[in-house]
Structure formats: C-alpha cells, structure tokens
Amino acid sequence: MNKKQRRWRNRIIVAIALFFAIMLAEKLGAWNALFGRYATYGEFALYLVPYLIAGHDVLKKAWRNIRHGEAFDEAFLMTVATFGAFATILFPQTEPQLAEGCAVMLFYQVGELFQSYAVGKSRKSIADMMDIAPEFATIERGGELVEVDPDEVPVGSVIVIKPGERVPLDGVVTDGASQLDTAALTGESVPRHVEPGTSVISGCINMTDVLRVRTTKPYGESTVSRILELVENASEKKAKTENFITRFARVYTPAVVFAALILAIFPPLLGMGPWSDWLLRGLTFLVVSCPCALVISVPLSFFGGIGGASKLGILVKGSNYLELLAKVDTVVFDKTGTLTSGTFNVVAVHPQEGVDPSCLLSYAAHAEALSNHPIATSIKQAYAGDLDQTRVRDVHEESGHGVTATVDGHTVLVGNDKLMAEHDAASRDCDLTGTILHVAIDGRYAGHIVIADVVKDDAEQTIRDLHAAGVQKCVMLTGDRRDVAEAVGQRLGLDEVHAQLLPQDKVAEVERLLALEQNGAKLAFVGDGINDAPVLMRADVGIAMGAMGSDAAIEAADVVLMDDKPSNIARAMRVARKTMRIVWQNIVFALGVKILILVLAALGLASMWLAVFGDVGVAMIAILNAMRAMRA
Ligand code: ADP
Ligand code: MG
C-alpha cells in the first residue's frame, strides 16, 4: 500500500468504527433517551460524521463531474443514492434509512480502496517480474572499471559483469565462465552455463564468476528494452470481451438510473403505494447499478493473465491474443528450431571424387559465414578452423533454398536440391536420412554434407498435452526433406506433416488450414522467427519460439516464448483458458447477482443492505477472482 492508500484506509477505519458505535448506541436506545422526540434528527447528524469522513472526496468528485457534464459515473450514483436514503427522514411514516445511507458510502469506499489496491498490486507484480532493467554497465577505461549508463555503451565494447550483477546488454562472452540466472526472462529456474563464445542476453543475472562480454547490440535494441516495450504496450491491445464490457457499462448505467427514476415516480403517481416506499426501491436500484465489478474485474483478469504468463517466460502482446489463444484448435509448427533443437550435427561428409572433405566443409562454412540460419550456425560450429570473413563476398541468402557466395573468388552454392536445380548444378542423392546440404563450386557439384537435427526433449510431451487440451490438429510445416519430416512427424505423433515447402508455400498452407477453421476456432503458428515472419503474421496467433536473440520473432509474433521449450505453448493455452474462464465467471456472476437484486428491489423485497452487497460485495468477489488469473 502506498501512502495515499494508507491514509485512505485509516480514514475508512475511523469512519467504520464511528459508524458501528453509533449504530450500537441506537440499538441500545441511547439516542432515544438522549434526544427524545428529535432522536431521528440527532442520529442523522451523528451519522453524517462518519459519512463525511469517509465520503467527502466522493461528494467532491460527483460535484466536479456534474459541472463538467459527466453524470452517471460511480461518484454521482453513490451521492444520489445516499442523499436519497437520508431524504427518508422527510417521510415520517417510513423507517428512516440513515444507517443504510451512511453504509452505502462507507462500503463503497471500502470497495474503491480494495480496487485501487488490487490494480496497484497486479501492476506492481508485472513490474517486479519485469524488474529486468539494468541500472548500469561496467566498462574498463584506462585500466579502471567505470560504471556507465547502458545506453552509452557502443556496440562491440567489452563490458565487465560481476557476480550478482545484471547483464546490461546483449553480447557474447569473451572471457570467464559462469552460471546465469535467466528466471526473470524465461521462468526457467535452472541456471544456464556460459563460457567464452556463448551469447548472453540482457536481463539475466550473473551468478558465480566475473564475465567479460563483447556487446553485440546497443541498449535500445537489447532484449531487455524490447521486452519492456512489449509489456508496456500490452494493455493497449484490448480483448473483444474487454471492449464489450466497456460499451456495455456505458449503456447499462444510464439505463438503470432511468429505470430507477421510473420506478420511483410512476407507481406512486398511479396510486400504487406511498412515495417513500417507491423512492426507496429506486434508490436500491441506483446502488446496485454501479458497474465497477465488471469494469474493473474484466481488464484486471486479462492483466493478471498476461502477468501470470510472463512469470512463465511467455510474453503475450495484448489481451486480445490471450482471448484468441483460448480458442485455438489447430497448432501449426515450424520444424527447425521449434520442434527440433536447430543445432545440427554433421552426420557424414560425402565429397565428389577428388574433392577434399575438409575443403568441402571449409567452403560451406565460409559461404554460410553471414547467415543466422540454424543450419549455418551448425556448419560453422562443425568447421573447426578459423573463419576468415575477408575471403567471402557477394553473399546472397535465399529463404528455403540456401546461400550463394563468392569464396576466394569461387562461386559457392550451399543449400538443398532446389537451390542446385535453380542454378543448374547437378546434384547427387543420398540414401541417409537427414538434411542434405549440397555444395557446388563454380557451377560444379562438389558433394554434400549430411546433417541431423535432434527433436527437443519436450516436443513429444507438448503434442500430447495439446491434444489433451482439446487441440484438434497439430501440423508441422518444413522446408526440409520429406523423409526427415516424416520421421519427426511419426515420432511426435503429429496429425499432419508437410515437407519441402518454401516460405511462401508455408503461408499458402496456413491459409488453407485457416479456411478450414469453423465456429470461431483459431489457428496458432509456432516458429522460431527465422524466415517465418510472414506466416507468424498470417496466423490468428503467431507464437515465436526462443526469442532469446531473434529480433524478427519479437517483432512479428503475438506471443513470444522466451524459452526454446515448445511445452510452453500448452502452458500458454492453459493460462489463456483460465483467464477467459475467470473473465466469464465474473461477468455472469456480477450481472446475475445484480439482476437478481434489481428484480427483488423492484418488488420491494431488497433492503438497502442487500444493495450494498450487490455493489461492493460483488465487486470485491469479482476482483479477488480476477487476481487468481495472475497465479500461473
Ligand atoms: P524449416 O521449415 O525446417 O524451418 P527453412 O524453411 O528455414 O526450414 O529451410 C528449408 C530448407 O532450406 C532447409 O532444410 C535447407 O535445406 C535449406 N536452407 C535454408 N537456409 C539455408 C542455409 N542458410 N544454408 C543451407 N541451407 C539452407
Ligand atoms: Mg525455420
């Protein structure tokens, strides 16, 4: 609680204590004894004290809003309702509603305070969780360590990160080996081992040893900045349900106020009973009409869902995506880097007659020097020698095909048979199962490298979990060879596998699957973001894997999984469905109770006390329920 909330709380406690003291004294007959004939007026004066202590700001706000022509807000409703209740002392034949009037204001304030606390708390929890912004970066300057603003560190500088400090910028370790705590980013509690050559992302905490890191990105483009930006913008993308509730509240409140007016005026005019009786029914209407249970709890549930998901390392870019995710019945996966680890092992090198195997590998590695594709990374890793980038020119990467480059003045092609066919280079088939990397030098076929990717540990479980969660179809799309695709598909229990696709074929395939969706069911595409940005955008929900590093993924996706783990997809869906359940529970519960009390009030069966419950009690229960969404 902040200072303002504490003062607010104290004020309410004092008012409530006074209120109960006055009520107790009333029950014991003290006021009758003291004020005699004027007991009612005496009580009214007394009740005004806690009423004003707790509610003076509400009155002020109502007055301010009326002057600005904004009636129908909660402050206005409460003011009219309480004034009306107090007005009962003008009708000697009715029971005066003084305690009730006072209570309406007191409990309204209790509800408001609770609301402000809940909203503050959930906002703080996301901020806490996202407490990943580094305060400084340490650089070496003239043999001394100086702390500077991470914003001021140029790309390519070497920064020093001591144990216990946060990694301020993305980079590659040049010196030292340590354990990194990535929990704030990925929800993963097992520390990650890093050593020279490993890339590190900002936001993690260095745990055991001093690290020296060569930065690869300026602060503004580092993982931390991107994530913070993403979380800050998440509340702007509202779910349909959220917008609906806002629109609904705008109609509902004036409608109930209008109904209250009719209820208070027409029946007594028609001689159906005393004015005071119908006035009271109308007032009860006003108290119940307060829409805050919905207006606060629905966005709070979504906010909680987004917060709960980010605790697991799942970043959802807006409540609308949470809503869509809950309706997903088809999940389409990219293979490489998504279901498989994306680190390929070289299984075999098959050079043509007269070609030296290590020479083949060297040409391939150099041609791939500038590519970020998982295949390129793996080939560079497999090639033990030094990579001399100055030997490489005219690099051209063709999505779904491979790369062409000039290495030492020779034109080198590295890629699949499509690439070879495109450049009229003959290629030889291979009977091994695996991804085949053909290499042609100066238009002549030089042989191929067979590489194999491993299926991720949790991939099989993910498909099972998704099916169990009611996902009808799990589909894999890949640009890789059919035999590799089929082997993976079989092993994981996928429903459909489509191989040898170019990026544009993947879009077409997703479009075909989208057209098959029925009854508002949605399709999610999961990719690693490398050359599948168009598909990520086309799907109802684009989920990017392993955002650790891939900028395109964070950019194009709607949901970003910080970890490389596909099992987080099932988890994200569970969070989404839980959030939607909570949202609908709140909507049904709040409206149900309110309508019930409205009907009872119209029939003269609801007391003001019940109306207070219908307003504050319902709001509190709905808010408590909404906060469950935060617990992942
Ligand atoms: P996936 O659909 O499995 O993610 P991609 O669409 O990224 O695969 O690539 C499809 C195929 O294109 C790969 O299996 C490979 O044969 C070829 N390819 C793509 N990029 C490269 C590259 N940088 N080097 C060599 N081959 C590549
Ligand atoms: Mg891919």
Overview of the molecule:
The protein is an alpha+beta fold. It is built from 22 helices and 22 strands. The chain has a 7-stranded mixed sheet, with helices on both faces. Strands 2-1-3-9-4-7 form a 6-stranded antiparallel sheet, with no helix packed on it. Strands 12-17-16-15-14-13 form a 6-stranded antiparallel sheet. Helix 3 crosses helix 5. The relative contact order is 0.11. The model has no long low-confidence stretch (mean pLDDT 89). The structure holds adenosine-5'-diphosphate and magnesium ion (MG).
Strand content: 15-25%
**Structural class category:** alpha+beta
Query: Which small compounds were modeled alongside the protein?
Result: adenosine-5'-diphosphate, magnesium ion
The span between the termini is 23 Å
Main sheet attributes: strand count, strand direction, barrel closure:
7 strands, mixed
Total beta strands: 22
Q: Roughly how much helix do the residues carry, as a percent range?
A: 40-55%
Number of helices: 22
How are the strands of the largest sheet arranged? Answer: 10-22-21-20-11-18-19
Taking Cα atoms only, what radius of gyration do you get, to the nearest Å?
Answer: 33 Å
